[in-house]
Write a structure and sequence with these properties.
By secondary structure, the chain is mostly helical. The chain is built from six helices and no strands. It has one domain: MetI-like fold, CATH 1.10.3720.10. The relative contact order is 0.10.
Length: 148
């Protein structure tokens, strides 16, 4: 509000809770993911880049055929960790007023006076989401680690 007054606006400003939450989690997750991919590309042997150039591959081709498969093999375990952190960080979205799993559990536990059931259900739901995503990442890791 203070910044808006500097520019001469005195009206009401409303920010969408979903956009705020999605934007904040996206920025944080994107920063972590970028560092994971940067580290994976830097860990690829420089000889791979040189060999692709010597063989006369175009830059686009040797990235898609040589560099990216090696990078994914190295980055997938770490991206899996970033995904798990992001999945669990979604419970913090309730701060923006958006209703999510933990907020619904809190409301339901308060209205029925049975917090154990609803918080246990939320924990099982998070465990299920984590389990499914880990299965997917394990399949991807197995696919990109063929031959190693």
């Amino acid at each position: 509000m203070y910044v808006a007054k500097i520019f001469g606006y005195d009206g009401y400003i409303e920010i969408n809770a979903f956009l705020t939450g999605a934007f904040s989690i996206g920025i944080i997750s994107g920063a972590y993911s970028t560092e994971v991919f940067r580290g994976a590309v830097q860990s690829i042997n420089k000889g791979q880049f040189e060999a692709s150039e010597v063989l006369g591959f175009k830059k686009k081709i040797y990235y898609y055929k040589v560099i990216i498969p090696q990078m994914l093999r190295l980055a997938l375990p770490n991206i899996s960790n970033v995904w798990q952190i992001t999945l669990k960080d979604t419970s913090l979205i309730s701060v923006t007023g958006l209703v999510e799993i933990m907020r619904m559990s809190y409301v339901a536990a308060g209205s029925t006076r049975d917090p154990l059931f609803f918080y246990s259900f939320a924990a099982v739901l998070y465990l299920f989401l984590t389990f499914l995503s880990m299965k997917l990442f394990n399949k991807l890791e197995k696919h990109y680690s063929r031959g190693y």
